[in-house]
Amino acid sequence: MNMQLNEDWQLTWEPLFRQAADYIEVVNKQKDWLQTNLPCDVHMPLIAQDIIKEPLLADDCFSSEWIEKRSWWFKKQFDLTEEQFASERLNLAFESLDVEADIWLNDSHLGHHRSAFYPFAADIKAKAKVGANQIMVRVTSGLELYSEQDLALIGETKVVFENDQVGQRGDNRRGMLRKAQYVYGWDWGPRVATCGIMGGVTIECFNSLQIRNVYATTVGINAKSTAQVRFQIEMENLHPFKTLDASLKLELFHDAKQIAILKSEPCLRSGLNYITLELEVIDAKLWWPNGMGEASLYSVKVEAQSKSHFVEYPTFDFGIRTLHLNVDKLPQGIDERAFAFEINGVALFSKGGNWIPADSIYARVTDAKYEALIKEAKEANFNMLRIWGGGIYERDAFYTNCDKYGILVWHDFMFSCAKYPDQLAWFREEVEKEIDYQTRRLRNHCSIALWCGNNENHWGFDEWWNETEAAHFYGGAVCYNEIAPRLVQQNCPEIPYWNSSPYGGEKPNGSQSGDRHHWHDCMMSEDMEKRITPEEYDKVTAKFVSEYGYVGPCRKSTIEIYHNGQILDRESKVWQLHNNTFEKDTVLAGINKHYVDSQQMEIDNYLLYAGLCQGLMYGYSLEAMRSKLFCAGALFWMYNDCWGEVGWTIIDYYLTRKISYYFVKRAFEPVKLILRQKEGLIQLTVVNETREMIKDSFEYGLMRYDGKEREAKQIELELPPHSRSVLLEWTAELYDPTQAFIYVKPIINNNEIKPVILRAEVFRELKLPEAKLKVEKVHELDESHTSFIVSSDTFAHAVHFSLDETIHLNDEYFDLLPGEQREIVISHPGHIILADGIVPSYIKVMNNAHS
């Protein structure tokens, strides 16, 4: 009998001075109401009805800043039937209110809510009626409630930017609010202050008994893949003083086939009851991260019956797997400790990126966009995404797709780059409710690998805020060091907890233990040469790199969209607005170092070479970290965008792959060869993340770029399953790095294992012959996929094709060795691919030209 109330709402706005006390005047307002549905950020109906322009296009974010200086009022009429009203308990539940909200039903004030991170719920039995009812909500973006005096202890946040191009990004008051912190602006996003009803609204009808929660855990898995699984069911008997006889049934399904059924006949006491059911699953289909095996899921269905009522818990998926965070001491140093995830007893190298909300107006992110982004992460060989602490706890669709596609989730709690006022009792209470709700809500998702207290605040305590007025007030530490670990242990003890990111050792952002944000050695260095030299990443000594990045542009089609008809000019206000604030001429410096002189460069060449530079930096750095056997993870900053910009990501706001996407995909391949030179030796690190033993014959040595000469040897190698090790070393011979390169390749062309080269000179200094590329064997696999073979007579750099930028290939912008053939598969739903439309191109050095 539950009733969804997500359609046919009305919305109006008033000055901020219209407070809850002005309810009667606003509710009786006769005009200026807009029609809307939920979820609803107030920007959405304003855009739809042309009251404001789309704030993510051009520089139109500035023209909508008035929104945060208004109060916003939602109104909804609904009818209750006699049957619904007769329920023993009648609740009104708001999934998310952003952020300072007052709620009324039938002119009665139900309460005030001040967090977007847990629901508002109220028992409305005494205030509702059969027939017509009316809900009213007042909500604001929240900053207006706090003064400079309120900020005395928390001081300045780390993220405030202001200049003629970007306006004011960031706000020192944001730390007072339990809502998404990024919406007031960050280096990678505009100030678009969210406000509204951000989730669904439900009338909940309860009778006799209720299944409040089901908690599924994997207790253990033996060597024969028999799994012990435990289910804890939280039930409620609604009667205040009578026991209740109930029948409880739990069914477990795999591939729609029932594999187990558990039954119980509990005597329910008044109020809350906890029933534990245990199950042995023979030949369990384990859940593995992407690249390590199948992400197998079981479905869990739970229902209960009393003499008078039947209730059913929403069916959910559950993955059988164990997870452990290894922080054991390492042998190579006194204070060195590991930081490595282990899945089903197997060590994991965490591969992926940092996730931010997929829209500045996060309420309008669709389930389809969530799936597209997570599927693209899988295609790029990710096995982990880190949900960054300045965003939101995502909707269920995010986590469901991570479960489905084998993507682990490192999950920050929502605190970032600021001191937080946990000296205030109300703030601690809000955090307690938030973390309790979210850990219980998300604990059944097998993708959740870690709960992390915050983003960069412990680092801030150590290095950033030492000279502020309240240097010794560690605002937020109670949240991260006491509240969060207690609730994680209470609600989901099998999920590891880590206090912050970065964190570990004597210095929170050190390299001896824990995770590191590797910024100031490279991209944030004052030395431009260190920013744009990929070999700097060979110096990494961190055990796990959870942030670092390099800036690159989107494709031209995307830039044209967000310029919204304005000329593409790198000096224009719109270009600079959509340019990351940390870019600081790094893009041009990278082009100058690696490819061509960038003066007077036309936009198409700028986009090509800048994209290649970002790809080079990401590809090389990720391989560098993967080749270090003491390093157990590399998560670059960042994976996705909240609007279109020249920025950190490899896939843009409009879901178009950037050039760098393909470099990251290759760096993260589950079977991978990596070459590095160390102290006169060439080292071949071999990675096999699959569950299969791989045996192959390889050729290795020195080859000229024209392919005419090579010094080669052959070797047979065994790649054990789930392994990463140095399998080959040899002495580096003297050679001219402008004319030759070191390589290893399978003797027989093998799409599973790609050749690897070690290039010891920047590309623009190479002496390369003209390459002749050939496309052949074009074959339609099905109506949406076409394959072909591309080859080159000599070395060819960054081979790419003349296809629409939105068409996906299994590989692009790759290097071809002399004589190498590579099979390419095009995914082209909705497009027709003709053989003569596949035109291969590569990057030349001669005359600084592109062919």
Automatic annotation (TrEMBL):
Domain Glycoside hydrolase family 2 immunoglobulin-like beta-sandwich: 211-321
Domain Beta-mannosidase-like galactose-binding positions: 29-198
A Pfam family annotated for this UniProt entry: Glyco_hydro_2
GO MF term list: beta-mannosidase activity
A GO BP annotation: carbohydrate metabolic process
Record bears the keyword Iron: no
Catalytic activity entry: Hydrolysis of terminal, non-reducing beta-D-mannose residues in beta-D-mannosides
UniProt-listed Enzyme Commission number(s): 3.2.1.25
Coiled-coil segments on the chain, per record: none
Keywords: Glycoprotein, Glycosidase, Hydrolase
Transmembrane residue ranges: none
Domain of life, per lineage: Bacteria
All residue ranges annotated as the Beta-mannosidase Ig-fold domain in the record: 769-828
Record family assignment: Belongs to the glycosyl hydrolase 2 family.
The protein, known as: beta-mannosidase
